[in-house]
Amino acid sequence: MKLEAANISVAVRGARLVNEASFGLGGGELVGLIGPNGAGKSTLLKAVVGVGPRAAGTVSLDSRPLHSYARLERARLLAYLPQERRVEWRLSSREVVMLGRYPHQRGFGPPSDASRQAVERALSLVEAEPIADREFRVLSGGEKARVLLARALAVEAPILLADEPTAGLDPYHQLHVMEILRGIADAGVAVLIVLHDLTLAGRFADRLILMNRSRIVDSGPAGQVLTDANLKHAYSVNALRRDEGSEQFVVPWRRL
Amino acid sequence: MTYPLLMIVLTVAVSAAFGVSLLTGPSDIGLAELMSSLGSAGADSTALILEEIRLPRAILGLAIGASLGLSGAALQGYLRNPLAEPGIIGISATAALGAVIAIYTGLSLAYPLALPILAIAGSVLAVLVLQLLVGPGGALSLILAGVALSSLAGALTSLALNLSPNPFAALEIIFWMLGSIADRSMDHVHLAVPFMAAGWVVLMTTARSLDVLSLGEETAGGLGVDLSRTRLLVVTGTAISVGAATAVSGVIGFVGLIVPHLLRPLVGHRPSRLLPASALGGALLLLLSDIGVRLLTPGTELKLGVLTALVGAPFFLSLILRHRSTYGL
Question: What is the CATH number assigned to the segment(s) B3-323?
Fold first, then answer.
C-alpha cells in the first residue's frame, strides 16, 4: 500500500508549523523523519493521520484521498503511535494492546479469535509476553514503549507511523525497537518514524526525510541526507562519520 | 470476583432493595400482603399505598440511582478523571434552575408537571450551550464550559431565591433542591423514566470508545474513535438521564461520583465494563439511601440528597486518603 502526502500545511494561531510538505511512503520501506526540535515532524505526522490541528493539503492511500475512507477503514489501514506514553486507568498490558483492535471490532461482544491472535502476535513480536498481565502503569519506560508499540502493531495495518518510538529508551531497547520496525518493514509494511538519533537513523532507515523550520528540506538515502552541509544548516552541528560496509555511522560531534 | 458474577450479585441486590423499599414506610405492610397485592388489581388501602405511594418511589429510586451511577461512570471515562460526576458539566445545576423557575413563577402550583418539564428543558438547554461553548475542543474545554455553566445556573438560582415574592416560595425552592423522592406519583414515573431510559441507551453506545480513550485523545482519534461524536453522546446521554432525574428528585449528589469509584477495581478498571455495573450500583445505593431516610427519621424525613451527601462526602475523603499514594501512578 502506498501513502502519498501532498502540500501538507499546518498553521496554528498564525504560526506555520508545517509548510507545503510532500512525501511518499511505500510498502516494505522504513523511512526516518528527522530534523531539529520544532521542525514540524510530529505535527506533520499528526496531519497525515488526521488527529492534530486542521491541516491543508491532501493525503492519499493507493491514489484514493484519505478522507474518502470511512473512519474505521482508515484506522485499519493507517496505524499511528504517538509519543505520549500515558494510559489512564489501571489496565493490563494485554488490555492496552487489545485496544489496538478497536477498528476491527464491532458490537459489544468479546473480542474475536482473529483479534486475540493479533494481540498475542504483537505481544510476542515485542517480547512482552512476560509482562502481558501486569498493570501498564507500573511498567518501566522501556516496557511501556514496547507494549504501546505492540498496541500499534496489533492494528496490523499496512502503514505504520510512529512518533519517536525510541525516545527515552536505553541502547538495548532502542536497538530492539529499531529491529522490530525493520522486521515489519521487511515483511511489507510501510513504516515512517520520527527519530532524533541520527546514528540509528543512518543505520536502520532505507531513506531519510529531513525537516527544518516547518519545511522538508531534503530526502533520500542516509548517505545523501546526512551530509555536513545538511547537518550544519538544520542542526548546527558537525559529525564524525564512518562507512562500515553497507552501514553508515554518523555521530554528532560538536555544536557549530 | 469475575465480571458476570459481580453483575449477578448487583442485580440480585438491586431486586432485593427494590422489594425492601416497597415494604418500608409508616404503614406496616408484610411480605405476604405485598405478594397478594401485586397479583390482584384490588382497590383496598394496601394496594393503594403500594401503587400510589411506594411503587413510584421505588421505581424512581432505582431509575434515578441508575442514571446517576451510569452517567458518572461515562463522564469519568470520557474526561479520564476519577473526580468527574454529572454535576461537573452543569447538568444538575441547569435542571435545578429550570425547576426553580417553575416554583418561582408559580407555574408549578397551577400545573404540577411544569416543574419536571422545565427542569428537563433546562438540561436540554445546557447541552446546546455546552456544544456551542466547547466547539471542536476536548475534555478540558468541556470541564471549563461545565464549570462556567454551573456557576451561572447557580447564580440565577440564588437570584430567584433573593427576589422570591414570599418566604414560602423560597422555602419550597430550598426544600426541593435538597433532593428527595418522597411523595412522587406515577405521573412523575411516566414523565421521567422514558427520558432516563433513553439516556441510558445513549450512554451505553459510548462504551467501547471510552475504553480506547484510556490511551488519550490522539491515539483514540488515530484508532478511528469519533471524538466529537463521543463527547456529544456522553453529554446528551447525561443531560437527558440526569436532567430527568433531577427534574423529579431535585439535586442528589455524590452517587455519580462514588459508585464508579467503588466499582472500578471490581470490574478490572475498564470503562466499558464500569458502565452497566455503575448503573446497578447507583440504583442499589439510592434505593438503600431512600430506605435509610425512612427508617432513620420516620415522620420528619431526612431529605435523600442530604443523606447521600452526609454519607458520601466523608466516605469519599477516606477513599482519597487510602488511595492518595496510588494517584500519582
Answer: 1.10.3470.10
